[in-house]
User: Fold this.
Amino acid sequence: EAGVAQSPRYKIIEKRQSVAFWCNPISGHATLYWYQQILGQGPKLLIQFQNNGVVDDSQLPKDRFSAERLKGVDSTLKIQPAKLEDSAVYLCASSSPIDRGKGANDYEQYFGPGTRLTVT
Amino acid sequence: AQKVTQAQTEISVVEKEDVTLDCVYETRDTTYYLFWYKQPPSGELVFLIRRNSFDEQNEISGRYSWNFQKSTSSFNFTITASQVVDSAVYFCALSYNNAGNMLTFGGGTRLMVKP
Assistant:
């Protein structure tokens, strides 16, 4: 089974430029997550999709960050305009129910390799 | 508010030593899930274990074992007979939303196993 795919793996941009990241989840996974991982810290959830709807985007800086999952499969995360503090690894994860008889919290998340963004 | 604390930022051991990584969490929920993930130098997070708040049984998987103690809000991870391949950053995480599986991660512990 193919894992979560992300591209590009690395991106360097200047502040105030725009950038977009792409994620292709594991086939059949309904839930997709974007995390931001600043160097030396744990990942922080930015947004969660269930199919093509947003479940939670409370930690997404909406003045500059946007994300979409139009057909409930692939997703893109965009930053416009970028700031120096946006330098981080952006991780995408997907999940699917392990046991449909249990609650939503039994979903296991599978992570992609991440996109390392450097803003200069 | 949910919070996960991994007080050890970096641990260095010699191969074959046992090592325990500490994790302390805070939550007001009575139902929650705890996780450990491994992040090797390649960067990809690898799932290790998930425990729910109603199951305090310790778990062993090969050289890995986990000690969940609700009374102290801790979920510690022990590697027995460590190997160089265990070198990585290890994250403890807590799920907090009953509508999904959104994770709050700790700051991570970097484990270096020297030959």
Remarks:
- Chain A has a mean pLDDT of 90.
- Chain A touches chain B through 29 residues (CB under 8 Å).
- The longest strand of chain A covers residues 88-96.
